[in-house]
Specification:
The complex is a heterodimer of chains A (295) and B (323). Chain A is mainly α and 295 residues long. Chain A contains eleven helices and four strands. Chain A is 71% helix and 3% strand. In chain A, a hairpin with a 2-residue loop joins strand 1 and strand 2. Classes of the chains: A mainly alpha (295), B mainly alpha (323).
């Protein structure tokens, strides 16, 4: 059997794949956080809860209405995004003139409520969500066995991340967003409806979290606690990447996912903490983050 | 940029009225165990001290730490281990907890003060989560079981803390010492510099203060006092578990401070009392505590950011604003 650093290559690649999958979700979530932060100057603590909400909406669509994975892939982001829009209009829009810490505290409360509600009705145990038939099974790549759904997650998340990045960099709407991030009052003076832009941004960010949630549902189990553990790691990712750059958030997400996978191969005890260790090291060397511009 | 503390400062030069109120409050504390269940009171006092320690950082330095559970829960583990396994007397165990929390605070603060505002909050949260995973894996914490059956022991070798009233008065003494320490720090020249950092960090730098050192010092002091509360709780309840190092615990102390009033001396005490009382009530009602906690958070941020005490102080006649 082929070995890499004294480890069977199958095990090595397997863990690398797990890392890549985790990295896909880190990337999608930190992307949403960076978009929301760029526009609203608010750290969305509820991002993990919205990811959990996405998985649960997908689960409930299937369980109650028989709506399967593929339609859910469209419906879930819309539903979660719409909920985000309502929350922004009702509450978050009142916090823009305050210290950003209040936004963090409000969304923290929101996350607790969302998590608490689902915990109350569904308990803490995970519920399985079946892999869609089209993607069940796996492919033998010669050097390793790749479950089809996992391959799909990696590809789809790459498409979503790059698509979002292109939409922000290349489209008219994206240029409004970037302009409003730089100087909201000037953009407002040009006749762009900035409050609407803020609402849409929060909706899009929440929708991305929901999309990540439904994509995660067949990989991990659907559980009320799935978001809160993840969000803290994603925060560390965001600190490492710096929130100044969308692309930076995406790249950092994948890198840290892979780093976690590699740690599982060589030193499993540290796999749950490696992301935080990397964060601490980056803070020592480059306090503004790898891609950050702000101090 | 920080408008975290909207309330007017009330600490400082205390008039005769304040002294009378303070004496009344202490008298009430001393009489309370004859009216209310002492264990419940001791829980309130531990959390009130924790919230005061946290407020030293958030209210008077303007730093939002999302990782204070590390110091509270960490100190609880240190004290419980020292007392149970090494058979240290309770006062030595508590001191070890305080020292341990201070060291943890030094490490976490060293990294966290490199960034400001929300990044600071996220870094402390991430490092606290790292400490949580450490506690899950480290053998001396006994993982999910925690350290149980910690003996309360004999204070100074002759006062049995197994006697509920002895334990209670010891907790009151530690609580008063801790709160006095916070009050002393806040009203010292050092505390004034902390406030200037909170109000305008850039200006504090331009005045020649090495802001990073002051922030780190405040962080370590706050961590040590939070550790005092955590270690005390471990002795009172005779156990130390993972619950005390979770991010939920960090959130709880933020809630207590926010609800009572950020940047007020008695706000965190009021907040802690209300939150602990609420948790006790909810525990029997079946309504999930998480939901209630989240709702209070949202209501506080949206409706009364000054907190209960802060709102009351803001409505009092002008007397407070002159000093």
């Amino acid at each position: 059997m082929t070995m890499v650093f004294g480890i069977p290559i199958q095990a090595f690649l397997g863990q690398l794949l797990v890392g890549l999958i985790n990295g896909s979700f880190y990337a999608m979530l930190s992307l949403g956080l960076a978009i929301i932060f760029g526009m609203l100057r608010i750290i969305n603590f509820a991002h993990g809860a919205q990811y959990m909400l996405g998985a649960f909406v997908g689960y409930l669509l299937l369980a109650t209405a028989g709506i399967g994975y593929w339609p859910a892939l469209i419906l879930v982001p819309l539903i979660v995004g719409l909920i985000g829009v309502v929350i922004e209009r009702l509450a978050i829009s009142r916090l823009y003139n305050l210290d950003p810490l209040y936004g963090l505290l409000f969304t923290f409360g929101l996350a607790l409520v969302l998590e608490g509600v689902f915990r109350y009705y569904y308990g803490v145990s995970g519920r399985p969500y079946a892999t869609p038939p089209l993607l069940s099974g796996g492919t033998n790549l010669g050097f390793m066995f790749l479950p089809n759904y996992r391959g799909w997650v990696v590809v789809a998340s790459l498409v979503v991340c790059l698509g979002t990045w292109l939409a922000i960099e290349k489209t008219k709407f994206g240029s409004y967003l970037r302009a409003a991030t730089e100087n909201p009052s000037l953009v407002q003076a040009f006749g762009v409806n900035v409050p609407l832009l803020l609402t849409l941004t929060y909706g899009i960010g929440s929708g991305l979290a929901g999309l990540a949630g439904i994509m995660a549902a067949p990989v991990y189990q659907v559980s009320p606690l799935m978001g809160s553990d993840l969000i803290i790691i994603v925060f560390a990712v965001v600190v490492v990447g710096g929130m100044g750059s969308i692309l930076g958030a995406i790249v950092t997400g994948y890198i840290l996912g892979l780093a976690e996978g590699l740690t599982k191969v060589f030193y499993p005890e540290a796999s749950s903490t490696v992301v935080f260790v990397i964060m601490a090291l980056v803070l020592l060397v480059r306090p503004a983050g790898l891609f950050g511009k702000d101090a | 940029m920080t408008d975290l503390t909207l309330s007017r400062e009330s600490a400082g030069a205390a008039g005769p009225l304040q002294w009378a109120l303070l004496a009344l409050a202490i008298a009430a504390l001393l009489a309370a165990p004859f009216v209310v269940y002492p264990i419940f009171l001791m829980k309130i006092l531990c959390f009130a001290l924790f919230a005061c320690a946290f407020n030293l950082l958030l209210g008077y330095t303007g730093l939002l730490s999302f990782g204070h559970a590390t110091f509270f829960g960490g100190a609880a583990y240190f004290a419980a281990h020292a007392v149970k396994v090494w058979h240290w007397p309770p006062e030595a165990g508590i001191l070890l907890g305080v020292a341990g929390a201070a060291v943890l605070g030094l490490v976490m603060g060293f990294f966290a003060i490199r960034r400001q505002g929300i990044y600071f909050a996220m870094i402390t949260l991430a490092l606290a989560q790292m400490f949580y995973f450490f506690c899950v894996q480290a053998p001396f914490t006994h993982g999910e079981d925690g350290i149980q059956g910690v003996p309360r022991g004999e204070l100074l070798g002759f006062i049995s803390l197994h006697e509920p009233l002895n334990m209670y008065y010891f907790v009151v003494a530690v609580f008063l010492i801790g709160v006095f320490a916070v009050w002393r720090i806040v009203n010292s020249p050092f505390g004034m510099i902390l406030r200037s950092i909170r109000e305008n960090e850039g200006r504090a730098v331009s005045l020649g203060y090495s802001v990073a050192n002051y922030k780190l010092a405040a962080f370590v002091m706050s961590a040590a006092l939070a550790g005092l509360a955590g270690a005390l709780k471990a002795i009172v309840f005779q156990f130390a578990t993972l619950t005390d190092v979770t991010w939920q615990m960090s959130g709880e102390v933020i809630l207590m401070t926010l609800l009572g009033g950020i940047g007020t001396m008695i706000g965190p005490i009021v907040g802690a009392t209300l939150v602990v009382a609420l948790q006790n009530t909810l525990a029997t009602s079946g309504f999930p505590v998480t939901i209630a906690t989240g709702l209070i958070f949202m209501a506080c941020v949206l409706v009364f950011r000054r907190g209960i005490v802060g709102e009351i102080l803001a409505r009092l006649p002008e007397r407070h604003s002159k000093q």
